[in-house]
Amino acid sequence: MSRILTVDLGTRSYPIHIGPGLIDRPEILTARIAGPQVMVVTNDTLAPLYLEQVERALGAFQTARVVLPDGEKYKTPDSWGRILDELLGHRYARDCTLVALGGGVIGDLAGFAAACYQRGVALVQLPTSLLAQVDSSVGGKTGVNHALGKNMIGAFYQPRAVIADTDTLRTLPDRELAAGIAEVIKYGLIRDPEFFTWLEANMDKLRARDTDALTYAIERSCRNKAEVVAADELETGERALLNLGHTFGHAIETGVGYGAWLHGEAVGVGMCMAADLSARLDWLDTASVRRIRSLIAAAGLPVTPPAEIGPVRFRELMARDKKTLDNRLRLVLLKNIGKALVTADFDSTKLDEMLVSSCPQGC
Question: Which residues of the chain have pLDDT under 70?
Fold first, then answer.
């Protein structure tokens, strides 16, 4: 049975459909198509699995496809440009629709192309990874990576709908599943302590892909995300809390090269580092730090950063983070499990101590 949530943005509100078999229900997708022309953007891993199903659902429309290489390293201006080339080459009009069939990379690329083509065309997100279903497909953040920083080029651009078919998680590699769970844990840490406790009790079910557990985790994560986005669409306040662990995580992804670590793996480590720093600042008790680290490890995620990024390199990479204002590094830190804050007002020597302590032997 599917469930429907709403991202409340007034006239730009849109539904999030969650449940099994949604790709095989064409009425859900076609109800959100703007005009006669549809471009499906996907990658070469997912195309053999789901592209024909989606195109069958769009049988009444003029459709074209863009099949990109799979992987974070292809989330580039060149891939974004290829989508625009295809839109222009097929002479797609302003009432066309882009359908993003894939994980976070495809969603970000297609979303950014939709935001820019003819100054904005319709977009439907059809996320196929857990990370995309609980986080990146919801809220309108789109963009590409640059060699000097992750997600530094992009736009806020909301879709017409998010259609999260939980059946697509059956083909998701275990490592990708764990990466998605990192973003699920994040919601418990920043605003939903009861959910965090539920995750402690149900992590084995999530990793075993229990349908009920996954559906519940996706719905509760999306509900948290939708509430935050509705309150702060352009990240001027509360929405920045969704970046818990991301400043450290983006430094890891940039430092080791895009794709070497999955986004969720880097964020998992980043949340451990944020918890450690919060404790060193006497904001978070050590028992909570242990709980956080244990849950992230139980999800099958790393809890220490890669040896090749030492404290100095971390500082260099974090200085480029888009949350840095007036040359002051802002971090999302924890006051408790379920209560976070964004601040630049912290003792920087404690950050240095944490970086040295977190660095594996041999950094």
Answer: 326, 360-363
Q: Is the overall model pTM greater than 0.90, yes or no? A: yes
d(CA 5, CA 15): 6
Q: Which amino acid is residue 252, in one-letter code?
A: I
303-323 confidence digits (pLDDT tens)? 999 999 999 999 999 988 777
Selected catalytic residue, list 141, 220, 280, 330? 141
Handedness of CA 258, 262, 267, 269 (dihedral sign): negative
Among residues 27, 91, 119, 327, the one annotated as catalytic is: 119
CATH number given to 3-170: 3.40.50.1970
Active site annotation includes 250: yes
Active site residue 235: yes
Q: Which pLDDT belongs to residue 70?
A: 97
The predicted structure's pLDDT at residue 321: 79
Give the CATH number of domain 174-358; options: 3.40.50.880, 1.10.510.10, 1.20.1090.10, 2.40.50.140: 1.20.1090.10
**Sequence ranges of the domains in the chain:** 3-170, 174-358
Q: Is 239 considered catalytic here?
A: yes
- Single out the catalytic residue among 72, 183, 219, 253: 183
Catalytic residue from among 239, 280, 323, 330: 239
* 246 among known catalytic residues: yes
Question: pLDDT tens digits, residue range 173-212?
Answer: 999 999 999 999 999 999 999 999 999 999 999 999 999 9
pLDDT of residue 132: 98
Selecting among 220, 224, 243, 280, the annotated active-site residue is: 243
Residue 307's identity, in one-letter code, is: A
Question: Is 119 annotated in the active site?
Answer: yes
Q: Amino acid identity of 92? A: Y
Name every residue whose Cβ is closer than 8 Å to that of residue 283 and which is 6 or more positions away in sequence. Answer: 333, 334, 335
Does 263 participate in catalysis according to the annotation? Answer: yes
Can 225 be counted among the known catalytic residues? yes
Residue of 72, 235, 253, 265 with catalytic role: 235
C-alpha 272/C-alpha 163 separation (Å) is: 31
Q: What pLDDT does residue 361 have?
A: 58
- For position 59, what pLDDT does the model report? 93
Q: How far apart are CA 178 and CA 266, in angstroms?
A: 11
d(CA 151, CA 309): 20
Catalytic residue of the set 75, 186, 223, 246: 246
